[in-house]
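User: Can you fold this complex?
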Amino acid sequence: MQFQLTDEQRALQDAVRSYLRDRFSATQVREFYEQPESDGAPAPLWQALGEQGWLAVLVPEEQDGIGLGVLDAAVLAREFGAGTVPGPWLGTVLAGEAIRLTGSKEQQAERLPALAAGETKGAVALVKQGSTPVPTSAPATSSGGTLSGSLGLVEYPELADVLVVAAQDGLYLIDPKGAGVTVTPTTALDRTVRLGTVTLDGAAGERLEGSTPELVQRLLDTAAVLVANDLVGIARRALVDTVEYDKTRVQFGKPVGSFQAIKHDLADLHIAITFAEHAATYAAYALDEQRPDAQLAASIAKAKASDAADTATAAMIQYHGGIGYTWEHHAHFYFKRCKRLQASYGDAAQHRERIAQLVIDAPGTQDEVTGVNPGGSSGVQGSGVAAGAAAS
Amino acid sequence: MDLRFSEQDEDFRKELRSWLDANLPSEMREAAFWADKSDDESFEIRREWEANKAKDGFAGIVWPEEYGGRGGTPTMKAIYDEEMAKANAPSTVNPLGLAFLGPTVMALGTDYQKREIIKPLLHNEVIWCQGFSEPGAGSDLAALQMKAEPQGEDYLINGQKIWTTNAMHGDKIFTLARTSSPEGGKKHAGISMLLVDMHQPGIEARPLKQMTGASEFGEVFYTDALCKQTDILGGEGNGWATAMLLLSFERGSSAIGQYTEFRKMWEEVTNVAAQVERDGRPATEDPVLRQELAAALIELECLKYHSWHVLTQTSNGKDLGFEASMTKIMWSETFRRVSDAHEKVVGTAFQVPELGQGLSIEELTTMAMWSRSCTIWGGSQQVQRTVVAERVLGLPR
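Assistant: Here's the predicted assembly.
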């Protein structure tokens, strides 16, 4: 039983931490925040993502990637959340993953090496705004190889070289600069992202032939899990910074962190974030290992991480007092990023409803490996599924 | 990342399962078996069943073999907890002795104490109570007032203890008393941990009835009760340090047993929900209750992941330290979430033992009430939060 990152994954974590500390710390984030008219992808940062292999993490070695898993990508996502790192990392990784999972050999050979190197950037529009991330919530409609629809709040549509769009019959690749495609930028509250609406009016789509509903669901679960990891990175940093501040901020002759009203709230938050971290880690691993409860784990992770980050970023403002409400303080970076991501790929309530569908409506399909059989109340069946024995 | 257990651990699971198959009759796994038995009757059945289990080597899983234990790993203990919960096996009648006293005696006891205490404890020949809380010393344990004064070779003990689990069944009690006046007003000083025979005229135990109607705990009155001056564990005046060491032995607990038990409860609550009508459809189709049930399941599964985390740390030889306070908060809050779901699912029917067609909800309702105690005993949620804030997060006192 080793429920923890491997040495290699820790090394990856150290590498991204030290890069962000030395090259893209709070100072750079703040400078970036004051340039809302920039394209949203600071060139040195993007170049480093490509050079370090952090865009290639899920791309197989035969397409010049490094062929690691969702858990490795999750390690990166968590650090990017902790650092409120801007740029189209997620869209590029997800576009690549869509092509890896459902593209033909030719499509993979043509697209993946450039995405892995950061030579091209990706964007995705996989679910209708406000919808639970399931294949039936596709935002576009296909007809005879062309696509139509209004894709709201797409991340980095102006920068993208390739856009992965979900339609009712699967995934398509779209050239965002092609005919029948209109990109309308929108101002985003969270300045660590660039958003826009993409309108498709008979746009030419290149179908990803292998995009079955199952694989589309896997892609959506991967997206939810990576976002959950970004959120737990946000939540943990929000808590750590708040604890540090409340150790030194003195009122009534004492550090405010000595008051129980604050202490107990922060203790509860630490526990909620610890749960969310475990869930975000396990969900990534479950996807990599295709464990039977992978979908359930993805929804648990996204629901728990969304709620924990929501509470943590609100507490960060509250327990910094007035300074936490200022533009000069970084609390709002975390708060705004959290607002964007906690609703992305399904909010907490949508994932709880999905959990109910998976476990209450269809018991047995998502039986967790260690536990008892859902639906059986006596718990004495001795199903022969020994704890962890079915883990691959 | 590797969620498999070792072959040795899995062999142990198989061995324990086949022992349970052979030695735990199916009727004993059902609530109905226990429903018509008095506290005394069920205690005696459990005591005997557990003693036989110990004879066959399924007790003291992580205790060294020299003390009659199995010499197993923390993972084996977790597997033991999980399998016992899955099998609906009777809970131990000697919980305080097994969890706390045994390991403390191994660490601090004299050779005589080791010989006299450990094996009889493991085999339920002696049931041990813990005498810590007093009417005026609950969360503030160091405010305890019970006095033990030297008289010849003995201590003469006067005072009162409360919330004593198994008070009516206990044979002996490890208890904190003041053997000298606190020096310089330090309330943690001058306390000793005494090992007292409960079968003597100076000891009177009285049951306390809980809100469930059962009497699993009680009060213990000491009126010139006696114990030998050598019956001190950890040395005279070292009672506070001994108690802190004793309480630390719960730290490695993984909560996998609690997870298994509460997950089963969740399945039962969901089964009941499918049979309860709400606005003309099963409660499992009510969107608000679906949120409630899913939210409880999220906490449950996170508790399982946390148990894996604890097991990983303990298997790698790491001390969890004050993280243990988190584990207590986690499992007791999760238990309450599941209980809350039950209360909301059944609504007014929380008042009655059965829901039409003979569907009994009595056990679930009792558990829901029991969950209210778990955020109090063993360090209230508020005390634990302070510990987490100060010792884990490093916030100032």
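Chain A is about 50% helix and 15% strand. The first strand of chain A starts at residue 122 and ends at 125.
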